[in-house]
Amino acid sequence: xxxxxxxxxxxxxxxxxxxxxxxxxxxxxxxxxxxxxxxxxxxxxxxxxxxxxxxxxxxxxxxxxxxxxxxxxxxxxxxxxxxxxxxxxxxxxxxxxxxxxxxxxxxxxxxxxxxxxxxxxxxxxxxxxxxxxxxxxxxxxxxxxxxxxxxxxxxxxxxxxxxxxxxxxxxxxxxxxxxxxxxxxxxxxxxxxxxxxxxxxxxxxxxxxxxxxxxxxxxxxxxxxxxxxxxxxxxxxxxxxxxxxxxxxxxxxxxxxxxxxxxxxxxxxxxxxxxxxxxxxxxxxxxxxxxxxxxxxxxxxxxxxxxxxxxxxxxxxxxxxxxxxxxxxxxxxxxxxxxxxxxxxxxxxxxxxxxxxxxxxxxxxxxxxxxxxxxxxxxxxxxxxxxxxxxxxxxxxxxxxxxxxxxxxxxxxxxxxxxxxxxxxxxxxxxxxxxxxxxxxxxxxxxxxxxxxxxxxxxxxxxxxxxxxxxxxxxxxxxxxxxxxxxxxxxxxxxxxxxxxxxxxxxxxxxxxxxxxxxxxxxxxxxxxxxxxxxxxxxxxxxxxxxxxxxxxxxxxxxxxxxxxxxxxxxxxxxxxxxxxxxxxxxxxxxxxxxxxxxxxxxxxxxxxxxxxxxxxxxxxxxxxxxxxxxxxxxxxxxxxxxxxxxxxxxxxxxxxxxxxxxxxxxxxxxxxxxxxxxxxxxxxxxxxxxxxxxxxxxxxxxxxxxxxxxxxxxxxxxxxxxxxxxxxxxxxxxxxxxxxxxxxxxxxxxxxxxxxxxxxxxxxxxxxxxxxxxxxxxxxxxxxxxxxxxxxxxxxxxxxxxxxxxxxxxxxxxxxxxxxxxxxxxxxxxxxxxxxxxxxxxxxxxxxxxxxxxxxxxxxxxxxxxxxxxxxxxxxxxxxxxxxxxxxxxxxxxxxxxxxxxxxxxxxxxxxxxxxxxxxxxxxxxxxxxxxxxxxxxxxxxxxxxxxxxxxxxxxxxxxxxxxxxxxxxxxxxxxxxxxxxxxxxxxxxxx
Length: 993
Prior knowledge:
The protein is built from 17 helices and 49 strands. Among the domains are: 46-297, glycosyl hydrolase (family 31) (Immunoglobulin-like, Sandwich), CATH 2.60.40; 849-993, Immunoglobulin-like (Sandwich), CATH 2.60.40. By secondary structure, it is of the alpha+beta class. A hairpin with a 2-residue loop joins strand 41 and strand 42 (890-897). The radius of gyration is 29 Å and the shape is globular. The strands form 10 sheets. A 9-stranded parallel β-sheet has the order 28-27-26-24-20-19-18-30-29. Strands 2-3-4-5-17-14-13-11 form an 8-stranded antiparallel β-sheet. It has a 6-stranded mixed β-sheet with strand order 38-39-43-48-47-46.
């Protein structure tokens, strides 16, 4: 079937989302353009014209110092008004963390929020008990020659990790700048969010201004949905055998900002706030990440067990029956489905806390949801943090949700006595002001009330970047026109150029030439019928000249390189001069824009905790800030259905590992555009390793559920069975992240930090410490190349599927077979992985017997961990920690805690034995007072043949032992009866000799 016919056949026939009212006039969507300062060769160089500062009144103490900083010459007023008097505060906050703050000495009441980021918005680290300069890993030094400069160095080696020597501190009311010199060819990572390579280039500008690009939400190298101003730097020794040293830098500032990576320096610029810097000593990458999460932004939340399942959503699921059909289709294909999600379709004209009449009525919804929950599955609809403003002249347009928020002044204001009214999916809309308590109360009440009608299991919060599809408070005086259509055609809108996306998938012209030709013809016909309107040119606005005592919030003197049209801060967001209700400050969006996703997410999470008292709700957030990981996960935005977007998703996931948001995923198979079978197959395989795993696409594209193509379905079954069998391992990783700031997905140089050849590897990654994933990231490939770190130092790698040792040389880029339904996976020697057989949901998987995979290192040893609880409670009543250790042919199991699942151990597989064993015995070694395994053994006369049977007549227990003398793998199976009381009830051991 030709692609054009497939698209037309799968395109849902639904009524228009809005009455046929006109699209807003272009004048309302007008935003003047500006030239980003980094591109303006005539822009002033603050380092050349500004005087810097002089330090005085220095007060030294055991935990740090304070000083006054005074402007060292005439004000330069480069991009704002110079602040004459500043305060320097240096704190040795812990052994591994040093804080350097520079802020105005005189904070006038009413303007403190312009400079100081409140700890109520995001965590602010403080001095820890016992911390002092004397026991710090880091040292702060400074000079006044020729002006105030400082540097931070490592005490143990003297290495300087941050230095402003040779540059000046610039501090103005709308522009701050400092420059740190860098070592040659420096290696830094992080600064999420950006779609780019894993290692940040030494000639790159990272802009931070949360934004949403309707035309291409996955554009490379531009600002994205989130702001995490933290980076990890790794410096390698002079040879591959030398130890590396890593450290971290976090700039706690939410204003629009830029980080200019250049060959020998990094320049940090922000259009407001203060310098609030934190230096982390590491000295390994994993230690830096842990120090950031445990000591700076708080550790990530522990997702519920079921959150780790697979979820499906599509913009165009028209009704409850449509959702049921999708659920049934996954079941019929024996593909796990944990949750079904809704995009905007379930809402009445896209208004929060409503139901689309005739499509998502409450009564049939209850039937659907009751059955879904009975199956151990879940339902999570979309939610947007904007509230429709009803037409005051139309009584039938009443919207109680708006009235409830207006009554308590819960909405952002237009700088006067009116609410700020922008345009969002419902039409003219207001935006909840999540930094004030009455909005939390309003938001919680609405969510609780809606749950009474629809028993949803969580939310995914969208367009909280914060998006508005017009410029300024464009709805002032126009709400009488509501409901309106957004000022552009939406995917799937009838009689538009985006009604159906006829673009054939990338490389489809190669893999499916006949269908591609048909789709091209249909696209050409559509283009002729609905030509793309030519863009109206907008004038270029010259640089804003600073005015004494005045801050220009809409066009600040320094223009950051916001990628949206015109580079304007006004474009497609709540305007910077919109005001909040936090008297006496009345903070503006200029200060808080990058925090809207963070605060709206926190409010939604708090509300969901009220919906499910004592439980961990499902919640993911499109826009995040430093500290968001403590309550939310994140998805990477409206991914394009392209191989390059799939490729860079790996780097995006690793960025969020640094940022402290491990529950991350992408729109598998792509949201925008059409995916084909091969792309979707490879993407389903890759995304199976992302902690958040969902498939999602737009309503004007071909359907791409995993069951749509037979090959994709088969590949998905294989990889999803692996994912579900590894849920105990993954859940344990999340527990370690929650208690110790460890990572779930890991870059290769984090596990092997002393190998400089790994510093830019972005086509492979690890799940925890034990599993190496080598995905196929290119079309028409039946093999893939990958490296195997640590081989030079004796690391052993095993093929996941055969458990044979990989024959590979140190540094070799080995070619691996990877036919379309197969993904190469390898196990690192030295680790024990607890598993359970995959069920059709996480619920059934948790009821399966246990198994252990023991992958021995070159010394014949391995270790592992397992964390258990009920998988849902915020504060579990019972937990269990299991330590697994294999050495000297003995597997020791040490347990602590009182959670008990009473499940037996089904089998133990040991890879890498030196020879097949002659005797296997088990027994309880604990002192817990509870019975462990019943002691049993089998005689030494059992044969080392491929299949040897044994029995223990005294207990009536029978098991099977198989040993492959070639691959050196021992399989001990059928242990359920011997461990019927539960394997984790007490300490126990298994002797294999």
